[in-house]
Amino acid sequence: MAKQDAKEVKYTTFKIHTAKYKTLLTKKFREREIYKPKDDKKVTAFIPGTIKKIYVKEGKDVKNGQKLFILEAMKMDNIITSKVSGKVKEIHVSLDDKVTREQLLLEIV
Predict the structure, then answer these.
(1) Residue among 96, 104, 91 nearest 58 (CA)
(2) What Å distances lie between residue 3 and 6, 7, 9, 27, CA to CA?
(3) CA distances from residue 98 to 60, 82, 89 in whole angstroms, order as listed
(4) Whether the model pTM is above 0.90
(5) What is the DSSP string of 47-98?
(6) Quick one: pLDDT at residue 6?
(7) b/e for 72-93, b at 16 or more Cβ within 10 A?
(8) What stretch of H or E contains 40?
(9) 37 exposure class (CB count in 10 Å sphere: 0-12, 13-18, 19+)
(10) Which residues does residue 53 pair with via DSSP β-bridges, in sequence order?
(11) pLDDT tens, 5-61?
């Protein structure tokens, strides 16, 4: 019985710098959400709130640091700026829209 269990064990090899390691992975680790780096060309709401002002229009050029929206949240006006330069592909919200955290607001190409 113990020999059968030993055959089913599957080791995974990790390479860290120049060293290789064989290890067992837990179920929690295998089923974890894979990290995806944030795409700066997709502007999202960092907090739930209401869109109070939109500074840009679709098809217009934007520069790094340019104001895009005012997002009112927790009785404060938060200015959302562009982190990249490019052209506004699509705006997914309109004035007075209530948005959730991480909701896509605008796309830049």
Answers:
(1) 91
(2) 5, 6, 10, 22
(3) 24, 20, 21
(4) no
(5) S-EEEEEE---TT-EE-TT-EEEEEEETTEEEEEE-SS-EEEEEE---TT-E
(6) 54
(7) bbeeeeeebebeeeeebeebeb
(8) none
(9) exposed
(10) 70
(11) 556 778 889 898 999 999 998 899 889 999 989 899 999 999 999 999 999 999 999
Residue 77 has a pLDDT of: 97
C-alpha–C-alpha distance, residues 105 and 79, integer Å: 13
Q: Comparing C-alpha atoms, which of 37, 47, 59, 45 is closest to residue 108?
A: 59
What tokens appear for 63 in the block?
A: 């520069």
Report how far apart, in Å, the C-alpha atoms of 45 and of each of 2, 18, 55, 103 are: 53, 40, 15, 5
Q: Output the six-digit token pair for 31.
A: 């089923």
CA–CA dist 11, 24 (Å, integer):
5
